[in-house]
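Open question from group meeting: does this chain pack into something compact, or does most of it stay loose? Before anyone orders reagents, we agreed to write out a predicted structure and look at it together. Recording both the input and the output here so the notebook holds the full record.
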Amino acid sequence: MRLSIKTLILATSASAVISGCLVVPEPVEEPVIEVPVVVEVPTAPLCYEVSALQMIEIPAETKTVVGISLIENPPYAPIEQRTSQVIVMKQAEVFYVVTDTESGSQTEVTNFCDETVETGPVGPAPGEALGAPIPG
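C-alpha cells returned:
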C-alpha cells in the first residue's frame, strides 16, 4: 500500500479538524440567584398632628427665698421688712410622645406638622422670679 504525501497531509488535516470538533467543553456553572428577603417596616408619618400626641410636662423646680430689709430709723426702732419670693431653679420642660399600641412604649416626637409647637424648656429661666414678692 502506497500512500502519497498528498493523502497523508489530507488525512492528518482531517483528523485535526475532527479532533478539534470532538473536544467537549467544561460545563459552565450557572450563577445561583438568591431570592431577596422582604422585610416590611411600618411606615411612620412624615409629620405628626399635636392633637394625636400625648403632651408630657415636667414642672419647673422652684425654691422660696426670704429677703429681710432693715432700715435704720433713729430715734425710733429700725424698720424691718420681710418678703418671700419664689425663684426658678430648673426650667419646666414640655415634649410630646406617641405611644405604641402593641408594646405600650413611648417615643418622643420632634417632627410636627405645625411649625409653631413649642417643646423643650419653657417658662421662666433659672434664676428668674415667679410672681411678685409677698410681704411677710
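Observations to bring back to the group:
The two ends are 145 Å apart (CA to CA).
The longest helix spans residues 5-21.
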